[in-house]
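Before the break, one more example. Copy the sequence into your notebook; we will annotate it together after we see the structure.
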Amino acid sequence: MTAPALTFQHRYSPGEPTAPVLLLLHSTGGSPAELLPLADALDPRAAVLAPAGQVSEYGATRWFRRLAEGVFDFADVAVRADQLADFVLAARERYSLRDRRLVAVGFSNGANIAAATLLTRPDALSEAVLFSAMMPLPDSPAIELSGTRIFLANGDNDPMAPATSTAELVRALRARSAEVTAVSHPGGHGITRAGLDAATAWIRQS
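Here is what the structure looks like once it is written out:
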């Protein structure tokens, strides 16, 4: 049987067989290596699947297009989320990950594409740790997300991921029956030690 094509450039390491798979989704201008230290902090035993975004914004790698700072091209978000979901399913086949727990870990732009994929393709993604995320698809379909688990950590004073947009994302996920754990910190756009510790504890809960 022919192995499925993997349409994203990526890094993969198998980790320990009983550990989860962490799908690492980098921020704007990042690369598949960007979140490797974060993965090691969350679970050093985990397998790592780290693709690279396919959109270039003045040379900076992104997951989807935007029309201006903080203004997303929602049609492109939907298309790119679908492409990422297909990649995840193909990678599960290619690397024999079908029975392993998979958790997306995203920061900023990576967190936003993960959120879009959670909202539209629960067949491919049902768990995620999102740092500095905001609502990526305001008019996403009301797909039932029972069984989906999400952890979010955001700054109350984040100019790039406003608290109002993050709250909108949380409401949308909960309205679709997802289990959401949301924590905040008084800072801006970044990952705090407290947020990382809370995310680590959340991953270990299941």
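The CA atoms of residues 64 and 77 lie 5 Å apart. The two ends are 34 Å apart (CA to CA). Try to locate both features in your own notes.
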